[in-house]
Amino acid sequence: MPLLVKICGIKTMAIMETALNAGADMVGLVFFAKSPRNVSLATACTLSGRTCGRAAVVALTVDPDDDFLQLVMRDLKPDLIQLHGRETPERVADIRQRFKVRVMKAVGVSARSDLADIPAYAAVSDMLLVDAKPPKDAAHPGGNGLAFDWDLVAGLDPGRPVMLSGGLDPDNVADAIRRTRLAGVDVSSGVESAPGIKDADKIKAFVAAARRAEAEVGYGAAFAAAG
Ligand SMILES: O=C(O)c1ccccc1N[C@@H]1O[C@H](COP(=O)(O)O)[C@@H](O)[C@H]1O
User: What is the dihedral angle through the alpha carbons of 110, 155, 144, 88, rounded to the nearest 10 degrees?
Assistant: First the structure.
C-alpha cells in the first residue's frame, strides 16, 4: 500500500491548494475551540469543497457529542472522523455505527504500556493514529509538536492501518518512516511558521521528503509482490 501523508490543521484556501498540489492524501480540519487551528463548520465546508476528491477530508474532533457530529456529518460529510480525545473503545464503536462513518482513533504513546489499549481500539476503528502522549498540563490533547520514541511503534500491526504523528517535520519525517514503516504520517506544527500558521514551503518539503522515503523503503512493493 502507498504511504499515506496527511496535512492537518488547514485553515485557508491557499494552504489547502498547496497541500493538494504537493500530493497530500489526507487533509485535516480541526474542530477544537482551544486550538490555534480551529475552524468553523462553514469554513471547513468551503475548504473541503476545494479538494474535489483529490484528498480525503478528515474532521479532527476531541470528545465530540452527538449533536456536533450530526452537524458535521450533515454539512461537511468528511471521509473520516479523527477522534483525538478520551473516547473509549465503546464510544468509538458507537460513533462509527451511529453515523456510518470511518473513524481514526488517536492513541497517545509515551511508554510501551500505552500500547496496551491498541487492540481494543483497533477492533472498533478503521484506522489508528499513534501520537505523542500530551504532557499532563498540556492545553491540547494533540498538535503540540512533541515527538515520542518511534521505536515503540516500529512495525506495529494491529490489523488496521496505523498513522504516525507527533513532532514530525520535513527534516525528521524520512527517518520516522524508515524506522517505523507505518501506513502513514500526519503533521501539523512541523509545517508551520507559528502556531496555526501553515508554511507552504514546509508543506512541500514535508511531502517531498515523505515521498522520497516511501520510494526508498519500497512501500507498495511488498503489496504488489503479495499479489
Ligand atoms: O492540531 C491541533 O491543534 C490539535 C488539537 C487537538 C487535538 C489534536 C490536534 N492535532 C493533531 O495532533 C497530532 C500531532 O500534531 P503535531 O504535528 O505534533 O503538531 C496530529 O495528528 C494532529 O492532527
Answer: -70
Tell me if 32 CB under 6 Å of ligand 1: yes
Residue with CA closest to ligand 1 atom 15: 143
Which among 124, 162, 152, 150 is positioned nearest to 6, based on CA atoms? 162
- Ligand 1: does its nearest atom lie under 6 Å from the Cβ of 187? yes
Q: Is the CB of 170 under 6 A from ligand 1?
A: no
Ordered domains of the chain (ranges, CATH): 4-226 (3.20.20.70)
How far is the C-alpha of 57 from the C-alpha of 101, rounded, in Å?
Answer: 12
pLDDT tens, N- to C-terminus, the chain (227 residues): 899 999 999 999 999 999 999 999 999 999 999 999 999 999 999 999 999 999 999 999 999 999 999 999 999 999 999 999 999 999 999 999 999 999 999 999 999 999 999 999 999 999 999 999 988 888 788 888 899 999 999 999 999 999 999 999 999 999 999 999 999 999 999 999 999 999 999 999 999 999 999 999 998 765 444 43
Is 199 known to be catalytic?
no
SS3 category, 187:
strand
Atom of ligand 1 nearest to the CA of 167: 18
Is residue 52 flagged as an active site residue?
no
